[in-house]
Amino acid sequence: MSMNKASRGPSHVPDPVAGNKKRQKKAGNKTIDSRTEVQQGAQEQKLVFDFNNMNRAMKHLAYYAHSSMRQGNQIEVPIPYTIMGFDMPVFLSFEDIYEFINLQEISANCILVYMRYLEELCRINGQAEKFVFVSPSLISPVRTDTEDAGRRERADNLLSFLRDAPKERLYLVPHNRGRHWVLGVIDPWEDLVIYFDPLREKKRDDFTELMNMALADWKITTGEGIRRRRDCKTKFSNRPCPLQEGSVECGYFILGENGVNM
């Protein structure tokens, strides 16, 4: 259902039906996460939480993983149709939680679960109609070494969220452009895409093409394109956000920008 971890380097997004960020194998009726496999004769590294040097807010999560989970175990989190376009669960492993708490590279599954939390917060605060969260696994490229043949399909996925967009609704779209997370905030009626990049690079490549393709189709389906000049193009606005200093923090910055933009 998700892509591999996001920092820098090549990216891969498996089939959304897969359910795990890593390839899974079947052994009878038991699902095995491939990350738990070890070569014969090799010892699996034991992951231990350092509770003494841990952020207070993280201790509750760490204690839960420490007391209720084992390495290779997973917890199931339901993801609603408003994020995925259909109801389905996402699975967080013990390793996902360990990496998140220790500020290592995080997967799209972690971002999906955080978006699930933000969506629930919007409903509680009466803002459910103002924000829509779009799953990164629906719009991020499968490969980055060649022209992505799936861009048309990904643009259609995004268009399915935009199709009946009321005015003043914003769409928050985390995007993995190749082991690096960025965030787009779309205002379709203003024909505007706000862009947040923790590396502050101006290079948008696939993201720009994807947004232009989806919004051009949206303007056609809504008739909005007829009311605009033919040469009117989608506006992109690079907004400053905190600058990451290392190579693995981009996912955390995108989580923070998701919350700030609410």
TrEMBL record:
Superkingdom assignment: Eukaryota
UniProt xrefs under Gene3D superfamilies: Adenoviral Proteinase, Chain A
UniProtKB keywords: Hydrolase, Protease
Keyword Transport: no
BP GO annotations: proteolysis
Positions of the UniProt region annotated as Disordered: 1-39
GO molecular function: cysteine-type peptidase activity
Domain Ubiquitin-like protease family profile span(s) in chain numbering: 106-255
Pfam families (alphabetical): Peptidase_C48
Name recorded for this polypeptide: Ubiquitin-like protease family profile domain-containing protein
Organism of provenance: Ficus carica (Common fig)
Lineage: Eukaryota, Viridiplantae, Streptophyta, Embryophyta, Tracheophyta
